Structure formats: C-alpha cells, structure tokens
TrEMBL record:
Residues of the Peptidase M50 domain: 140-190
Annotated GO CC locations: membrane
Keywords: Hydrolase, Membrane, Metal-binding, Metalloprotease, Protease, Transmembrane, Transmembrane helix, Zinc
Location within or outside the cell: Membrane
Record has ATP-binding as a keyword: no
Organism per entry: Motilibacter rhizosphaerae
CC cofactor: Zn(2+)
InterPro entries (UniProt xref): Peptidase_M50
Regions crossing the membrane: 14-36, 48-65, 105-127, 139-158, 178-201, 208-226
Name the record gives this protein: Zn-dependent protease
Membrane topology: Multi-pass membrane protein
Signal peptide as annotated in the record: none
One of the Pfam families matching this protein, by short name: Peptidase_M50
GO biological process: proteolysis
Length: 262
C-alpha cells in the first residue's frame, strides 16, 4: 500500500499511509456536527473544515503515542523501522521482539502512558474561559484519553493485548501461547464492539456516522487480531518472516513486528 514519508525523526521515518485520507474524511464527517453544536461553528463548509482540522490534531496525537512506543523500543535495544499512520490507527514497526515479559510490557505501556500524560497536561487548559483555546484543550483531552484508554483494552493488536501477553508470559506460558490467547481476546473485543455499535445505532443513541466509525474501528481491530494470529512466531509460521506486505519498498526483515493502535 502506498505511503508518503513526511519526516525522519531520530533516524526513524514517519510514514503516512494512503488510508489516512479516509480517516480524515470519517473524522471530519463525524466531528462537523459537534463543531457546530459545541464550538459555535456555522453549520456549513466551515464546520467540515473544523472537522478536518480536528482530524489533523488526531493524527498528531497518534504520532505522539507511536513516538513513545518507538522510544521505548529503542531503549529496549530494538531497532525501529518506521512510525506509520493509517486510517484510524497508527503503528510502530519494530524489528524483533522484547526478550522478556518486562520488556514487552514496558514497550506496550509507553504509548498509552504518553497519551494519558498529554490528556492530563491539556486538562489544565480547560480552566480558561470559553473560546478557541478551551475547545482545542477539550479536543486534546478527549482524543488522548480515548487513545490511552481504548489501547489499554486487553486484546491484540492493542497495547492492552500486549500487556495481557506479557502477563500470561510472566505466569509461565510460552510467548506463542500467550500471544494466541491475547489475539483471540482481541477478536472477542472486536465482536463485542460491533454489537455495541449496532445496538447504539438501532436505539438511535448515537449518530449513524459515529456508529459507522465505531464499526470500522472494530473491523480494523478484528483484522489486526487475525493478523496477529497469522504471524505468531514459532507457533504458526515457524521460520517464516512476519513481514509487512504494506512495505514493498523496503527489504524483508526477519521477526519484523508491527504495533498498532486505534
Ligand atoms: Zn499503542
């Protein structure tokens, strides 16, 4: 899948994948009515521009989250091939796996920790009078809270799934067994999320666009979990590199691993 390298930070390429445009459209579509209702933006093209601006802010928050994973991976001695942003998620392509449960947990926890710290810092700006500054602070708090908390759900490919993997691994299971259980947990979470989105839409409790975005996020989660099951080292594909088919422009790397967040 085509990607655009927009920067290189500390030697690590930052890549925007083509679906990022779909993500911007979905976020702008969902956020435009909220910008009109909560931000006082006229309900015309300007509300969609405000939605698109919010989508860019979301991308910046995702990049900050992934940068934290990349820093933690490097501190654990693992090379980082790239930090990527896709439709409604990001990913940090780490070459190799942490050698023990503690390293696995530290790399996994770094992203949500960064998001929650950013949410806490931005919350201080909520005390200012109503205006663009407070709206921006509210957006930062909401986005980073979602990034931090959703990613802590205990199923692969979310960070919480990696924390579950590390916990099961530390309790004596093999890494492959722990990864399989965490991946099945991710598939279960995705199914539950689809049911919640359908029920909320049927009960008209959320806008149809928001339910659709939730269902799309659940589909991405299910695909990521299935991908985790298909790329389990040793257990399923012993000897086969878990390379990223999205990266035809880079040489295959053994044990290449991709972390994904929503
Ligand atoms: Zn993450």
């Amino acid at each position: 899948m085509p990607g655009l390298r927009v920067a290189r930070v500390g030697g690590v390429p930052v890549v925007l994948r083509a679906p990022v445009l779909a993500g911007v459209v979905v976020v702008a579509w969902v956020f435009a009515p909220l910008a009109a209702r909560l931000g006082g933006v006229p309900r015309d093209a300007r509300s969609y521009l405000a939605g698109a601006a919010y989508a860019v802010l979301v991308l910046a928050c995702v990049l900050a989250h992934e940068a934290a994973h990349a820093c933690a991976a490097r501190r654990a001695g693992l090379p980082v091939a790239a930090v990527e942003v896709g439709a409604l998620h990001g990913g940090t392509r780490v070459l190799g796996e942490p050698g023990d449960p503690r390293g696995e947990a530290l790399v996994a926890a770094a992203g949500p920790a960064a998001s929650l710290v950013l949410a806490a810092l931005a919350s201080a700006a909520l005390l200012q009078p109503p205006g663009p500054g407070r709206l921006l602070a509210a957006e930062l708090v909401l986005t980073n809270l979602l990034l931090g908390l959703v990613n802590l759900l205990p199923g692969l490919p979310l960070d919480g799934g990696r924390l579950l993997l590390a916990l099961l691994w530390s309790r004596g299971r093999s890494r492959a067994d722990a990864a399989a259980l965490a991946a099945w947990s991710g598939i279960g979470l995705a199914g539950a999320a689809v049911l919640v989105a359908l029920a909320a839409a049927a009960a008209r409790r959320v806008p149809l666009a928001a339910a659709g975005a939730g269902a799309l996020a659940a589909a991405l989660l299910a695909a990521g979990a299935a991908r985790s099951l298909g790329t389990l080292p040793a257990a399923v594909q012993r000897g086969a590199p878990a390379d990223d088919p999205d990266q035809p422009d880079e040489p295959d790397q053994p044990d290449q691993h991709r972390r994904t967040s929503t």
